[in-house]
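Section 5: illustrative case.
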């Protein structure tokens, strides 16, 4: 099986989380400690809205350009954006061009189910960024070796890319029960055994176990939820694969506790579980002030990792002291994601395998305790304007497709 990973390209990335490109997740990446940046390649999934794919692509690269730290390489997954109707503009090319102008390296994320037009655009995007890409494969999309080989041949033919310059991510989706683990392990071995006829730059196995909604969990008490993707990793870590997951959210979105106003909530990652804190609101006054109580309970718990681990942990510790404000649902996801990324990276780089090693309060490589977290490069003030000024309308006011 070792032949499936190209030995000429050592796997410098140890972690590929699949994250929705929302403000909370992007803020967590913005504050990622600089020492972790070479070790992680997040796959950012663009969100589809009724505004259409061209506007959604614009919103995506504006948010990414404003928030990502310098030097972070990202995978860009536009699968949820439909193909635009006519015109010469295409989201994959637009995003690749403007991220290249900002100096943000990206890898387009390919699917074997992509249309021929989309694959051609992804090939163009990859050629703007070192001719590399990520193939995100869901095993049910290519159920047998022959089908998978034909599907991959079509991808290389349409994109003009070489598999040895591409990373394979086997996305197993949701693992909701321990009974899912044997089948997931068998699937990984089957995909690796078929090799899809290729030698890849790297292979990553990704899965997630967070439920799509937490409304069934009790309030005002910490609830333990098993991280089945961590248990799967313990079973397959001897294989030539890297680790991926879906952060602190479900692989597929679901309902929310209260769509207009979620309860104060924290999803706190540990070695083999999440601890979910859902706190009821005060009847009067400032209802979200209960988040201070939540943080106080978390920081006194045995599974608290300490404020030095990540920006998110530092923000939680500040709220435990009732300063400054309790934050918002977006803030809570940002802080939880920040802790999660640091926990996984600490375990992967500290012991070579996540999540067998418990995270420590040690700072990341090359980063001293108390040093400010990494920040985004300075951006021009005023209206967003990618280099060259070819696509710089204010939000909601787009040029005609090129």
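Designed sequence:
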């Amino acid at each position: 099986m070792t032949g499936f990973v190209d030995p000429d390209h050592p796997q410098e990335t140890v972690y590929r989380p699949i994250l929705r490109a929302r403000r909370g997740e992007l803020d967590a990446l913005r504050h990622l400690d600089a020492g972790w940046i070479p070790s992680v390649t997040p796959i950012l999934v663009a969100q589809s809205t009724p505004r259409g794919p061209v506007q959604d692509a614009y919103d995506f690269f504006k948010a990414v350009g404003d928030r990502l730290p310098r030097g972070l390489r990202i995978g860009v997954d536009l699968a949820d954006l439909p193909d635009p109707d006519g015109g010469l503009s295409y989201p994959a090319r637009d995003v690749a061009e403007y991220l290249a102008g900002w100096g943000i390296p990206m890898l387009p994320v390919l699917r074997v189910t992509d249309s021929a037009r989309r694959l051609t655009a992804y090939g163009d995007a990859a050629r703007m960024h070192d001719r590399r890409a990520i193939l995100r494969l869901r095993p049910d999309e290519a159920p047998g070796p022959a089908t998978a080989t034909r599907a991959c041949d079509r991808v290389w033919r349409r994109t003009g890319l070489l598999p040895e310059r591409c990373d394979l991510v086997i996305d197993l989706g949701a693992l909701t029960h321990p009974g899912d683990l044997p089948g997931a392990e068998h699937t990984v071995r089957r995909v690796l055994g078929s090799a899809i006829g290729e030698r890849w730059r790297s292979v990553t196995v990704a899965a997630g176990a967070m439920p799509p909604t937490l409304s069934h969990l009790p309030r005002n008490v910490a609830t333990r939820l098993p991280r089945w993707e961590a248990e799967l990793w313990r079973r397959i870590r001897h294989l030539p694969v890297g680790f991926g997951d879906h952060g602190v959210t479900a692989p597929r979105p679901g309902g929310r506790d209260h769509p207009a106003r979620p309860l104060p909530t924290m999803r706190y990652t540990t070695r083999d579980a999440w601890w979910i804190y859902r706190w009821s609101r005060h009847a009067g006054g400032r209802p979200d002030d209960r988040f201070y109580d939540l943080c106080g309970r978390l920081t006194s718990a045995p599974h608290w990792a300490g404020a030095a681990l990540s920006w998110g942990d530092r923000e939680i510790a500040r709220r435990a002291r009732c300063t400054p404000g309790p934050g918002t649902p977006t803030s809570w996801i940002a802080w939880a994601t920040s802790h999660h990324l640091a926990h996984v990276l600490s375990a992967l780089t500290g012991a070579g395998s996540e999540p067998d090693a418990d995270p420590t309060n040690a700072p990341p490589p090359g980063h001293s305790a108390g040093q400010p977290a990494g920040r985004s490069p300075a951006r021009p003030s005023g209206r967003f304007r990618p280099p060259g000024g070819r696509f710089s309308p204010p939000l909601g006011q787009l040029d005609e497709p090129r």
